[in-house]
Amino acid sequence: MRRRLSLLIIGLLSFMLVTLTNTLLPYLAISSATLSEHHASSAVSSALTKDVAQLPSLGNDVLDDLAWGFIANELLKAIDGGLPIVANTTDVFPTVNVLPSEPFEASSVPAENSVAELSKGNDAEAKTTSQLVAQLPRIRNQNRPEEDQPDYGGASVISEGNVPFNPITSTEYIIEQLHQSVDGTAMLIPGDYEIPVTMFCMNQSAASPPGHRYVLAPLRGSRAPVIAALNARAAGLELNYQPLQVLSWNIQAGMAYVDMPAASQSLVDQLIPDYRDQLRGSFLEEIERTYNGISSFTNLPSFNSALNQLGEAGRLIRRYQDFRDNLVRYQNDYNRLFDTLIPSGGTTSALGGSERTPWSKLDNRVYARMITQASAGGVGKLQIRVLPLRLTPAGLVSSAVQVAVSNIIADSENPDTQSIGGVTTTESESPPTNSDEASPTEETTDENDDTEVPKPSAPIPDDPTQPPGEDWEWRGNGPVGSGEGAWFNPETGESLHPDLDHPPPIGPHWDYTGKNRGKRWRIYPDGRYEPND
């Protein structure tokens, strides 16, 4: 640390000397945009020349610009190297619109190594199956030779290609592997998989509209291994969503273990005790130490006082400070915390679903995507196709491949929309992927039988200010379509109350009371129903 600080001060002195000589100014590695961004007062210039270089004041704004620009650049380097999680990135996996099927069409995978055989196992055999798969020869993704594949990227319509996507939905042996995984991957043999995942927020503060379209990206950041381990080890445990999301946020904020609330510390101790050392330090404290190391040789203002003069570096630091402060302030008030970090009322123009979400190419043999009609706290589907391995000049014949499961992120490609991290769940039913698929509303019984899911006599309106049908009228004290009232049908006794700003884990929904004022249900944007007792 001391050596780094010495180098920083030497660099700062060099900039000042260059200004004095005015001979090497064109070669400075600070752009004019950075200079103008980090303009400071001439008082700082005087302090720097007095306390650092013992030089007379130049009364020169260029020196101020150089000093603050140098400091800002050093802090940006420290931020870039220590950023806990990168929620939105240009480093997404390449995508294709047509799901590759080669060489499925002409291949013969041995029956004992086929994905269909896995579906015949029961829960008790999951561990044994996992061990058998783990013993297959492994070929690391980054070392696998490239194979010739058709160009699937040019199609404009999302398609399953020549071989329909026909997944198994049993996840027991995948969960077993994730619990033992050190990198968030599982060994999968050729076939189609559909893994239900509970969706967790990966942005500091962004809306989570239902049905957004995502693309997959590697999980990046200094704490990416911690998040990957957390999501892997929480797989299948069906833990309470709220405290797990709060822990994930604390990790994303770069919080030290000792500064986390007791509930988060307890989850760390339960799920990832071997990562406590990686949670020992604080991201913001490390950035502040970098600044203080420079300012200790100068008369610079305090860290917080200087942020407004540090341009983009200062703005990033402020965002993380707000993130941390909200987590501390509302650590015992989930609803307030979720309202603050997941603004309600968000909509998306990038609609997802099976007909709009492209496939991400994780590897030459692995294609995957995340599809959902839900928002954060709901369930999405991680769909994966693993292609058989062709014989290559290298003579590789293994059919199993390591597939990223918990060490990837569903990137929203929009900083105002939450990116998603997934925790594998054992739920066998997941939301429909588009409006054409069957929904629970089709399961109707006699109108007085509240033991089955009812079907409203009119469709749920897209706009809550519009009635579901001609016989419906607004009743309530609030404006039409608000949360202070409901649409009521006096002929049937049904009511529909819009609760579209409800925070996770429940999320946006309509409260429906059945005919003759029967049982109450929540109806979600993706078509799911659940009792609202």
Describe the fold and architecture.
With 533 residues, this protein is of the alpha+beta class. The protein has 3 domains: 118 residues, no CATH class; 219 residues, no CATH class; 96 residues, no CATH class. Helices cover 29% and strands 15% of the residues. The protein has 14 helices and 16 strands. The strands form 4 sheets. The chain has a 6-stranded antiparallel beta sheet with strand order 1-5-6-7-3-10. A 6-stranded antiparallel beta sheet has the order 11-12-13-14-15-16, with no helix packed on it. A hairpin with a 4-residue loop joins strand 12 and strand 13. Helix 9 packs across helix 10.
Number of domains: 3
Number of helices: 14
The strand order across the widest sheet is 1-5-6-7-3-10
Helix content: 25-40%
Total count of strands: 16
User: Could you say which structural class the secondary elements and strand pairing correspond to?
Assistant: alpha+beta
**Low-pLDDT ranges:** 18-59, 105-127, 132-155, 428-451
If you average the pLDDT, what whole number results? 74
Q: How far is the first residue's CA from the last residue's CA? A: 58 Å
The best one-word shape is: globular
The amount of beta strand, in percent, is 5-15%
| Rg (C-alpha, Å) | 28 Å
How many strands, what sense, and barrel or not for the largest sheet? 6 strands, antiparallel
Question: Can you write the helix and strand succession as a string?
Answer: HHHHEHHHEEEHHHHHHHEEEEEEEEEEEE
Secondary-structure blueprint of this entry?
Blueprint: H1 2-21, H2 32-37, H3 42-51, H4 61-82, E1 95-96, H5 115-118, H6 126-134, H7 172-180, E2 185-188, E3 191-201, E4 215-218, H8 224-233, H9 241-252, H10 262-271, H11 283-295, H12 303-306, H13 311-329, H14 334-341, E5 359-363, E6 366-371, E7 379-386, E8 401-404, E9 408-411, E10 420-424, E11 473-475, E12 486-489, E13 494-499, E14 509-513, E15 520-523, E16 529-531
Antiparallel strand pairs: 1-5, 2-8, 3-7, 3-10, 4-9, 5-6, 6-7, 11-12, 12-13, 13-14, 14-15, 15-16
Helix pairs in contact: 1-4, 3-4, 4-11, 4-13, 6-7, 9-10
